Amino acid sequence: MRHLIVASVLIATSIAAIGGDGAANRSNDIPTYGYEVVNTWPHDPNAYTQGLTVKDGVLYESTGRYGASSLRIVDLATGRIEKSVNLPAKYFGEGIAVLGDRLFQLTWREHIGFIYDRHTLARLGEFSYDGEGWGLTTDGRSLILSDGTDRLRFLDAQSFRVHRTLKVRDRGEPLRNLNELELVNGEILANVWQSNAIARIDPDTGQVRGWIDLRGLLNVDTADAVLNGIAYDEARDRLLVTGKLWPALFQIRLRQPDRH
Questions:
Q1: Which CATH number do you get for residue 106?
Q2: What does the pLDDT read at residue 70?
């Protein structure tokens, strides 16, 4: 794949600028992690990835855009779509999370989420929420929802009522444009929209504990083709990332942080 550029060394500088490649003027006491690529697999280059998650070795993906949104079960090794359901054209698919045998999928501006059987992708019901839906993950009890602001909402997985709101702060400043989410080893990983930065967030305080700098992972020539997929395969301790319209999905390993 001619677009792929794999980083083999730690990126030695902090992420330069939110809205470009990351977060501006990071403090020396907040570490910036580099990465190395462990594995690379094919990914549907037409998938406008909005959500990604792994449960019991099964890879699930949500794609967006009106008239093209879907929920998929994907074979990791080949990128082949093993099972899929399409959303009605009036819905723009967003983040997903699996809790028990149920899979939850957000929509962008429609204030509706869908509930599926995670094995068959049969639709079981729907739920509603205020505001926009961007990213979704779970701590095993609640659904954690991002909406493009600096806040994360914790929803009861039965009533879907918001029982907690977490304000995310980086050195005391609001961190906005929080998008795709994944809970990994007690931290919330959040991609900052239109950047190659992933924030490591303390789920108790909302403070940013560190940054993951993914610059150089993939060179793309399409403005929409931005980083927007984080999944953690807990059983195999694998961190997976991809993006909208990316032709590849990567397993990465974090490198020691730069605190220069």
A1: 2.120.10.30
A2: 98
Tokens for 160, please give them: 């879907």
pLDDT interval class at 237 (50, 70, 90): very high
Let me know if residue 133 belongs to a domain.
yes
pLDDT category at 130 given cuts 50, 70, 90 is: very high
In a domain, 146, yes or no: yes
Give, in order, the Cα–Cα distances in Å from 135 to each of 33, 69, 77, 149.
22, 15, 25, 11
| 71 within domain boundaries | yes
Average pLDDT score over residue span 144-159 = 97
**Cα distance between residue 146 and residue 38, in whole Å:** 29
The amino acid at residue 47 is A
Q: Report d(CA 244, CA 229) in Å as an integer.
A: 8
What is the number of structural domains in the chain?
1
**Which residues span the domain enclosing 227?**
32-253
pLDDT in tens, 196-210: 999 999 999 999 999
8 assigned to some structural domain: no
Kindly report the pTM of this predicted structure: 0.88
